[in-house]
Design a protein that fits this description.
thiamine pyrophosphate (chains A, B), Rossmann fold, lyase (chains A, B), about 775 residues, Xul5P/Fru6P_PKetolase_CS (chains A, B), Xul5P/Fru6P_PKetolase_ThDP_BS (chains A, B), homodimer, 6-stranded parallel β-sheet
Chain lengths: ~775, ~775
């Protein structure tokens, strides 16, 4: 009994019952024999790369094996993932040749991000670490020693690819997103090719399973291409993979069905010839498709190339240890010789393994890679670690004056319709650096003015196969998010509008991205990026037609938990504030911006100029809705009995109406109405750059009067922000509390206790000094 | 310009470049002509169903068209989704025949959950509404009137399928999960077939794209089967679908690659013959596969059947309105005649449309469905709305005494190893009603004792094709969650252990499920369900090897935002408490349980008996770690100067060590140490059933002394819970604050300010009355 019992390394999949002729779907190519000097250079890179990657996991000393290997040379704790490394290094070496042969701009997106040793070893070999970390990781014995001994040790490179890794545009953590990010990166980058390795573990994820469809949204005239390499090494951490158990017929069928031409590379004996010829084939197919499109004779449904690479997990590592198969099994996933630091037998096995690469032949006396390696490298600026697109690509948008799209104070207007017109113009001004990704909700969210001068870009659909279409609508939030990430990380700006309730689908994906950007800000050699920008509408407060399943404001919390430097949540109360906020975020940098608004026509409280000022401050006293100051025209009372605060469109409406009604039935009560549009101003001073200073907070919310917050999100979330503010016990928070159905907007407010009469009922004579009579009118009659 | 311009209804996909012979992959069957009386009955059901579904969207009066249709008969607000309804009703009618023919136990899972009118119309016709809502929706004119007029109106059925819908086991909201839920439902239900309609919109989601692989985890000996029907009607809300733009060759290829036999049903002229013959074929194929397995001659990689149903969106609805194509285009998605209540022309179009079904032929004088319809229905208990498995299926687990697995107080032990041994035994005792789903992390999470007496169940892998294997490891959290939902909703119990950081992948999916269960609790005719149970381990505090990307405790917040009746979050401080908690949740009902623990060996503070008591209370004063009461042996001080609170394994360790160090360097300081294992006890009284009463809270945390919480999750989250508790301003909260890397556990605590000396430094002489000298030793030396 027990876990998976593997009796042979790299066991072949059970054969399927598919007919033999489907194998014809797998592309056969004429395999060219590489010239000796190329093959030698490739092998030298691969051997050196594998040696360094393996050493990074094990060695804290004697990193070139110049002395006899001893237990004391082994790191006290062995950390790192070996299994995927040989395959990643193999691909890296071949991409070098490909880049040289075609003078390509190429990015290498590595799905198995725990294969950091492979990337770092390759980056050291090609001198990219030397460039970005001079004096630390130079191409000499000291630099190599630093790389190997500091890996996965505090202060050294971490075990997963992240923003500290030159050339990377993808956090190496949560699996599933490499492919969509790659497609996003090549959009509007016609000369870029991204090679994306997807591990067969990652390939089991839903996000990856649908990201294969992304070719259908790629216009070869305006965009570059992705070479996906599905790396089938057969195992996850401790179990075989789905794809490792699919035979060639199943794999050829599946990916042909997605729309690819599939090339299966599995000839281990001649892997260099096989892989390089296959990559050459892929580039030729890409050029063919691009040429046709760029000559305005586009191929309908072009079958883009992809590669399936079958190599053993932990290839070239130890074959067997203590009777257990290592190479070609899940035992090689992390540390193949876990007792190398304490067990002499394992130490010897490590010595044999590392010695097999003959590193002394590959580095010169100073520890610098020999000519056999360096002759295979592309020009520095084309190397995978040094393409500018990966580290300093930002092109700010050409902005326009938003006030010209402002609407008249006093009317009812939809925030989305107003923003749509502004964005329509912004798209016209930025035809190559701005895109919108949406899960088929643009019309429904009433942002359709965007389609006035651009179109959807869905290449498989003859009715929306628009050249230059700025809009992609695919019913996969994961694809939308992945495209946005890739597009943004390569220097452009994107927008992701969504139903409020479904943006949480990409909660953790957004967090992963934000982790990458947080570290990128700490890396001195990385430039700015546009922010990622979300618009949430069709909120719970107006989901009367779709009901309970469409009511979920939890994405606010996802953004709130990010670092304060990046986290921005805006709840503009009307169309002009919304417009001002959209304008602001589209030119902001390095943030995660969430803007929440209504698609329904709602009251416009502020003129464009007033909206600009309100948004600049993040919150303000709304004198027009408060009890007037008898001594100062246009101002409201200086010393309110109670402060009512609205945060969000519909709940602010309730606050204003509650104030109106209170004033009519209890005129003695002095009421102040405050609107908060920038949620971050509420956080305790010093905990966020937007946080109101204590004095300012007291000025707005008083020092001791009861404050009632009517909040769009979950009450406990707002309570968490207010904690630590002056006399929190005088504050009450109402908000969405997971009550809903297909019902009226009125009833939604009522069920979640955000409704006017419930707000009014919060206060007794004891708490505010004024008795409030029972209201006779509901605000619907006001 | 503008959106998608559709010039013909139901436009055919552009042809692919796949070779013609792949079309042979699409299964050809001998199509049987249905006997007239069967076809007539089918058509009667379909016509009546479509009539009622359409009327539900439009009519508030004159529901049988007995009078001339007038504007006043139209609902003031038109809500509902027509487009998917005809296809769903078509399938329903055919499943009735299939159930009768084979005496099947069948559940119908409807992915397009906004097609509630289709389900409700069918449920009324078959008498299932009458059974569960007697007197309200009876099969007579009054019942029908109620159904039609109250739909999507407060108090009536909502616009999306939910727990109020008889026969449903799936919330009709967020798309992507229908298929995985269906597979979960048939596991260990050998006689059950779930027919699952997946819309072509839903099919674009990642979760659905990988859920097709679920057949690979289905053992036909022990489990039932799913008949997936991909319903390709070509359009989402306002855009064509990916699958609508794939030709038959692409579709046949794709799903053959997944491992299915694909039957494409698209002969609209003879749709009844075509669909029924295809369903008969599917059942025959299923029986063939099951028979072989049950006779212990299992077919290797059986190719399970699936159906692709191509019908026009909004079929049988209006063809064209105001020059716009409706039937066969996205215009039929929701309300095809949006102005029917105000525009005479649209009203006439509605009249023509509704009249086309000739409802008067299908209902008798009392409004009861005629014999043509009723003769096609299965026996009541087999009807799709009345199968007991869908509404009252719960089989509680046979529980075992957990204390026999308790470990010795004082040693270091892994919570996961301890729980693994208990669960191993629990699986042995419950070989057919308990399953574990994991994204390939069982070994890594050190729960592998579970595999001592059971195995993984991965049918495509010859090495883990175990009969009766209780463990499914697939690297898709969405599949794990979907399987768990389906398994639980059909009466069994499941467990989903995960890396802490990646459980948030299913955040919104879990919320959708919880919405279903919330409503299910309010529906009198639904029985109990097991809770859904999550174990989070490999937490941020011990991700020193994987680093920043593996650090994300946000799933706590997802559970906290659920309704208090269901939300349960436990952070047991040691192995015995963990064990007690696992035991508790496995027998609990109707909850969403999240338990967080460590896989590393950590201190065992409490004996099994003490752990039981601590968990029963949810929190307690840990006298052994506090300053002793000089007057009472074994007790701690009654009047502490400060209260230190640990919530979570590693942060509690820091608290205990801080207390220890403080006591040694500032002996005058009276310290109380509290551990909270049930997070919910902290919430303000009356807001959660577990919340501590005010007096009890003060007894534990004092009325006014400084309280320092060292919390495993985000500080603002805990602050939100504590808000409203006595004198919140005396409370400080530390916790994970999104700082990390590949670094030591020590450094992780330091970076997130949860470390002992930082905890100690919180207090000045002013705040606690005792000066604390600078510590000379770190607790690592203690």
């Amino acid at each position: 009994m027990g876990g998976t019992q593997i009796t042979i390394p790299n066991p072949p999949p059970l054969p399927s019952h598919l007919p033999d002729n489907v194998l014809d779907l797998a592309v056969q190519i004429e395999r060219k024999k590489l010239p000796d000097h190329v093959r030698e250079s490739l092998r030298a890179f691969q051997r050196a790369g594998c040696y360094i990657a393996a050493s990074m996991i094990f060695l804290r000393d004697n990193v070139l094996l110049q002395d006899e290997l001893q237990l004391s040379h082994i790191k006290p704790r062995l950390l790192g993932h070996w299994g995927t490394c040989p395959g990643l290094i193999l691909v890296w070496s071949h991409l070098n040749v490909l880049i040289r042969n075609h003078n390509l701009d190429m990015i290498y997106v590595i799905g198995p991000g725990h294969g950091a040793p492979a990337a770092l070893a390759s980056l050291w070999l090609e001198g990219s670490l030397e460039r970005f970390y001079p004096g630390e990781y130079d191409r000499n014995a000291t630099g190599l020693r630093n790389l190997i001994t500091r890996f996965s040790v505090p202060g050294g490179f971490p075990s997963h690819i992240n923003a500290e890794t030159p050339g990377s545009i993808h956090e190496g953590g949560e699996l599933g997103y490499a492919l969509a990010v790659s497609f996003g990166a090549v959009m509007d980058n016609p000369d870029l090719i991204v090679t994306c390795v997807v591990g067969d573990g990652e390939a089991e994820t839903g996000p990856t399973a649908t990201a294969w469809h992304a070719i259908k949204y790629l216009d070869p005239k305006e965009s570059g291409a992705v070479i996906p390499i599905l790396h089938v090494n057969g195992f996850k951490i401790s179990e075989r993979t789905i794809f490792g158990c699919m035979d060639d017929k199943e794999i050829a069928c599946l990916f042909s069905g997605y729309g690819y031409q599939v090339r299966i590379v599995e000839d281990l004996e001649n892997i260099d010839d096989d892989l390089q010829s296959s990559l050459e084939w892929a580039v030729a197919e890409i050029k063919k498709i691009q040429k046709a499109a760029r000559e305005d004779k586009p191929i309908v449904k072009p079958r883009w190339p992809m590669i399936v690479l079958r190599t053993p997990k932990g290839w070239t590592g130890p074959k067997k240890v203590e009777g257990q198969i290592i190479e070609g099994s899940f035992h090689s996933h992390q540390v193949p010789l876990p007792k190398a630091g304490s067990d002499e037998k394992q130490l010897q096995a490590l010595d044999r393994w590392l010695s097999s690469y003959k590193i002394s032949e590959l580095l010169d006396g100073e520890g610098k890679p020999t000519e056999a390696i360096s002759r295979g490298l592309p020009e520095p600026e084309k190397r995978l670690g040094q393409l500018k697109t990966t580290y300093d690509p930002y092109t700010p948008l050409k902005m326009i004056d938003w006030k010209q799209f402002g609407v008249e104070k006093g009317i009812d207007e939809s925030c989305m319709k107003t923003a749509g017109k502004f964005l329509d113009k912004l798209f016209q001004e930025n035809p190559k650096t701005l895109r919108l990704f949406s899960p088929d909700e643009l019309e429904s969210n009433k942002l359709n003015a965007i389609l006035d001068h651009t179109q959807r870009d869905f290449q498989w659909d003859e009715y929306s196969r628009a050249h230059g279409g700025r809009v992609i609508e695919v019913l996969s939030e994961h694809n939308c998010q992945g495209f946005m990430q890739g597009y943004t990380l390569t220097g452009r700006t994107a927008l992701f509008p969504s139903y409020e309730s479904f943006l949480g689908i990409v909660h953790t994906m957004m967090v992963q991205y934000s982790k990458f950007v947080k570290i990128a800000r700490e890396v001195p050699w990385r430039g700015d990026l546009a922010s990622i920008n979300y618009i949430e509408t069709s909120t719970w407060a107006r989901q009367e037609h779709n009901g309970f399943s469409h009511q979920n404001p939890s994405f606010i919390g996802a953004v709130l938990n990010l670092k304060a430097e990046a986290a921005r949540v805006y709840l503009p109360p009307d169309a002009n504030c919304f417009l001002s906020t959209v304008h602001h975020v589209m030119k902001s940098k390095n943030k995660t911006n969430l803007i929440i608004g209504s698609k329904q026509p709602t009251a416009v409280y502020l003129s464009p100029a007033e909206a600009a000022e309100h948004c600049r401050q993040g919150a303000s006293i709304w004198h027009f809705a408060s009890s007037p100051d008898p001594n100062s025209a246009g101002e409201s009372v200086q010393d309110p009995d109670v402060v009512l605060v609205g945060i969000g469109v519909e709940v602010t409406f309730e606050v204003i109406k509650a104030a109106e009604l209170l004033r009519s039935i209890a005129p003695a009560l002095k009421i102040r109405v405050v609107n908060v549009t920038d949620l971050m101003i509420l956080i305790e001073e010093s905990k966020h750059p937007h946080a109101l200073a204590k004095a300012k907070f007291i000025e707005m919310f008083t020092a001791d009067r009861p404050v009632l917050f009517n909040y769009h999100g979950y009450p406990t979330e707002l309570q968490g922000l207010l904690f630590g503010r002056e006399k929190a016990e005088r504050m009450d928070v109402e908000g969405y509390q997971e009550e809903g159905s297909t019902t009226t907007p009125f009833d939604m407010m009522l069920r979640n206790r955000c409704f006017i009469s419930l707000l009014m009922g919060k206060y007794s004579k004891d708490s505010i000094g004024v008795a409030i009579p029972t209201p006779e009118r509901s605000h619907r009659q006001l």
